[in-house]
Amino acid sequence: MVTYMTNANFSHKDKINRLNDLLFKRVFGSKGHEKLLVSLLNSIFASYNEPNQIVVKSLTLMDRELDPLSQHYKRCLLDLRARLDNEAIVNIEVQVRPTSFMPRSLYYAALSMVLSLPEGEDYTNIPHIIMINLLDYIDRHDNDDWINSYTVVNKRTLQRAPKAFDLYNIEMPRWREAYAAGKFGNNKLYKWFVLLTQSDDKLILDWAKNDPELEEYIKMEQAFFNSDEFLLYLQREREIKDAKAARKEALQEGMEKGFEQGIERGIEQGIEKLIINMLRHGYSAAQISAMTDVSEDLVRRLQTGLS
């Protein structure tokens, strides 16, 4: 029987935030459990029902950090990154704080493309780059669709450019509106998004009785909430709530300009403080890196500063 057994300190008065990046990465980015991400990706790709629809059979999780070729350019730290069995590279970002995400996505896709082609390789070997953004806010106002797909096409013929990149923007608030209006059929995408938005956990538990992937997700989530990472999850939730409250206040006071950069730096400082506290409590650099998704190199630099 599939049931929830979460940390005793966790109050279900507050819904589980499955778009919390720590929880999302731990479940969908764990080696040995790649079939969960395969299932989620296939359900997203199937939503467009294109003639040459991508069908993922397997994938390999990749390093999430993209370092530019020069220190003068921004680096990228993606939530998830994987190479598919057809050699395409998928970059996945989960974003809960409102920000203009399209320019960032284009930069991530371009950097991913640049770093995928070693010196001496032919340009035809550039892999297909796929960006998937799961946004817990409304990003685009030119239409009311909950999912929008972008690519490079010929403006006159609308024919896709070869080796083009694809970008999927999925806006969870609009999905919830469509769900409330009963606009979805009972397919796998529907099930995954009911789970991710925690729209009906009783229904999820019922589905999991006959769905091995949903059952495995629930088991991994239970393990997460009964691990040391649970405290990091709670801290991240507080950061998210504080950021939303600060943003609301900034909007009310007309100080939106420069706000996003300040919030992001504040969160970075909070993570650094957390790492320093963990070091003082005897955690190793490897343990801290695994629990916070911060590189061991950065942890060691902070550790050196304590000496």
Short description:
By secondary structure, the chain is an alpha/beta fold. The chain has helices spanning 21-28, 34-46, 101-115, 172-180, 188-196, 201-208, 212-225, 229-252, 259-280, 285-292, 296-306, and strands at residues 59-61, 65-66, 76-77, 80-84, 89-95, 129-135, 147-150, 166-171.
Written description of the protein model:
The protein has 307 residues and is of the alpha/beta class. Helices cover 46% and strands 12% of the residues. The strands form 2 sheets. Strands 1-4-5-6-8-7 form a 6-stranded mixed beta sheet, sandwiched between helices. Helix 1 crosses helix 7, helix 2 crosses helix 5 and helix 10 crosses helix 11 (296-306). The chain is globular, with a radius of gyration of 20 Å.
List keywords for this structure.
11 helices, 307 residues, disordered N terminus, alpha/beta
Q: Structural class, from secondary structure content?
A: alpha/beta
General form: globular
Extended strand count:
8
Largest sheet: 6 strands, mixed
Order of helix and strand elements from N to C terminus: HHEEEEEHEEEHHHHHHHH
Please state roughly what percent of the residues sit in beta strands, choosing from under 5%, 5-15%, 15-25%, 25-35%, 35-45% or over 45%.
5-15%
Q: In terms of per-residue confidence, which ranges show pLDDT below 50 for 5 or more consecutive residues?
A: 1-13
Mean pLDDT: 82
What is the percent of helical residues? 40-55%
